[in-house]
Amino acid sequence: MGPSRVRGETPSNQFFLDAEEFAAHPPADAATTEIAVRNAVTTINQIMHEERATRRRDGLPALEDQLVLEPVAPHRSPRRKPTLPKPGHLIARLRGWRPGPAHAGWALLFLAVLIWPRAVLIAMLAVFVLCLFGVALFGQQRLQTIGNDLTARARAIRAKLLPEAEDDPFDAMPDPFDRIGDAGRDRLGS
Fold it and tell me: Which of 14, 123, 134, 184 could covalently link to 180 via disulfide, CB atoms 3.0 to 4.6 Å apart?
């Protein structure tokens, strides 16, 4: 018995399907398990993308006379290989770099680790043990107040060593609106 496709007539078979489904082979888009899984993943990704877009739209305030925009596919730019800077640019950057006192401190610490690795490790262990005993004896809050006092002192010393900010160079100049005079003010309405 074949499917009945007469308009307005209900099929008499309760398992009525299209003629393709009666064939004993799977649909073309699911010929293998891998293709079926790939199609399912693609479909799920599309559904999730649409749900995210609707959630984003729902989170926005409702505005009158606003058109509903279709979600735009994400733009994927091709990845570029990282390029090394040209030697001239690297040399120019090195010439423009001016090391500060912090760089000298890090360099000294690096050299200390290279020259005396055992002494540095012993000093770090000693500081750790002292901090551990300090917490056990005095408590964490007391050590925090000591640390805050030390950082406040360091900031005060640093503020004394740094040059003060220069005054505004335009303070000594006259105000350009003072040149207008009384006749100009009358014209401006003030």
Answer: 184
Please list, in sequence order, all residues whose beta carbon lies within 8 angstroms of the beta carbon of residue 64, skipping any fewer than 6 positions away: none
CA-CA distance, 137 to 7, in Å (whole number)? 93
Burial classification of residue 73, based on how many CB atoms lie within 10 Å of its CB (0-12 exposed, 13-18 middle, 19 or more buried): exposed
d(CA 107, CA 113): 10
Looking at this protein, which amino acid is placed at residue 63? Answer: L
Cα distance between residue 143 and residue 133, in whole Å: 11
pTM flag (> 0.90) = no
Amino acid code (one letter) for 36? A
Half-sphere exposure of 121 (CA within 13 A, CB side): 5
Q: What's the CA gap between 66 and 89, in Å, rounded?
A: 50
Q: For residue 50, what is the enclosing H or E element?
A: helix 33-59
115-153 pLDDT, tens digit per residue, is: 999 999 999 999 999 989 988 998 888 888 988 999 999
3-state secondary structure 98-147: CCCHHHHHHHHHHHHHHHCHHHHHHHHHHHHHHHHHHHHHHCHHHHHHHH
Residue 127: name the closest of 143, 145, 149, 107 by CA.
Answer: 143
The residue count of the chain comes to: 190
Instruction: Please name the residues in contact with 93: beta carbons below 8 A apart, sequence gap of 6 or more.
Output: 85
Dist CA 68 CA 44 (whole Å): 23
